[in-house]
Design brief:
- The protein is α/β, with parallel strands linked by helices.
- About 35% of the residues lie in helices and about 25% in strands.
- It has ten helices and 13 strands.
- It has helices spanning about 50-60, 75-90, 130-140, 150-165, 180-185, 195-205, 210-215, 255-270, 275-290, 300-310; strands at about 15-20, 20-30, 40-50, 65-75, 90-100, 105-110, 115-120, 140-145, 165-170, 190-195, 220-225, 230-235, 240-245.
- The strands form two sheets. It has a nine-stranded mixed beta sheet, with helices on both faces. Strands 3-2-6-7 form a four-stranded mixed beta sheet.
């Protein structure tokens, strides 16, 4: 069985999520501090997070067979993060525990309107060994990652192509350090996700169908841009589709885009057309922003279907 993206759906795993999970230490602040400034805050708690990990959890919670690959420390946070994977149905057998290392963490400063600033500290240690990655790719339909290390990701892409595994990436502006990096990233993937802030920073202006289709000339088959309260846009070489955001009470935007991406892929694997996938993902994201923590608001399929039924297209 294959999708319109020409994905092989007969493999044991639909999604291989490659990236380290992290613990989000969340603080409420009136505003994020500037350089050389201290602000008062209130600690809100510790939550499981990580951009790739969040998307994996959303996809798995919505019925997509998902395995994770990455690293955690051999500390209490590492055990917490593995338990969090299990809670959402993600298989974490390929996640390594690195002896003597502290797990990845992020300090998230949440402002009253639900927007955030953060500091991220990665886990120390080498990337997962190539033989384990090769074996995982051979049984996975799609590799999903955020390629901050472009040379390392190029090697991963070569392995994925050799295994017949499709590739999806989420791009942030911070990944682009040299001229040409943005176009290079586009050329490495079949599906590219980004938000409108990244789109504007890398390519100028607001996303639209014409501009998005020009970017597809660099290689990807599908480009999806999330636009916060304005919804989302998706473009292939043949069509461009938009969908407005569903009405939601913004509590915390952390992980909302990741939830959107995971839900979009889950719908894609079920054979949804572009409009169906976009609508399903926008609905999922509306639940994600209404709870504190990157994964607290990941909805069940039943809740999404109830929302979609109440607001027909």
């Amino acid at each position: 069985m294959r999708t319109w993206l020409d994905c092989d759906l007969d493999r044991p795993w639909r999604l291989l999520a490659y990236g380290d999970p992290n613990v989000d230490l969340m603080f409420a602040v009136d505003r994020a501090p500037a350089s050389n400034e201290k602000v008062l805050g209130r600690r809100l708690g510790s939550f499981a997070g990580g951009t790739v990990a969040n998307a994996a959890c959303a996809a798995a919670a919505l019925g997509c067979r998902t395995q994770a690959m990455g690293s955690v420390g051999d500390d209490a946070d590492g055990a917490f993060l593995l338990d969090a994977y299990a809670h959402h149905g993600v298989d974490s057998a390929l996640v390594r525990r690195i002896a003597g290392a502290a797990s990845s963490c992020a300090m998230v400063m949440l402002e009253p309107g639900g927007e955030k600033a953060l500091v991220y500290a990665p886990v120390a240690g080498e990337a997962s060994a190539a033989p384990a990655l090769d074996a995982a790719l051979a049984v996975s339909t799609l590799l999903y990652s955020m390629p901050y290390d472009i040379p390392a990701f190029v090697r991963m892409v070569a392995a994925a192509r050799g295994a017949g595994t499709r590739i999806a990436i989420d791009i942030e502006a911070a990944m682009v350090r040299r001229e040409g990096d943005a176009e290079r990233l586009l050329g490495l993937a079949d599906i590219v996700f980004m938000n409108d802030a990244t789109y504007g920073a890398l390519f100028g202006g607001a996303p639209d169908g014409e501009g998005m289709r020009r970017l597809l000339e660099h290689g990807p088959r599908l480009l999806v841009v999330t636009c916060g309260a304005a919804g989302a846009l998706a473009a292939t070489r043949d069509e461009t589709v938009g969908h407005p955001a569903f009405v939601a009470t913004l509590v915390d935007s952390t992980g909302a885009g990741d939830c959107f991406n995971g839900a979009f892929l889950a719908a894609l694997f079920e054979g949804g057309d572009l409009a169906t996938c976009l609508r399903f993902a926008c609905a999922a994201a509306s639940f994600a922003v209404a709870q504190l923590g990157a994964r607290s608001g990941i909805p069940s399929r039943a809740r999404i279907e109830e929302l979609l039924a109440a607001q027909p297209a």
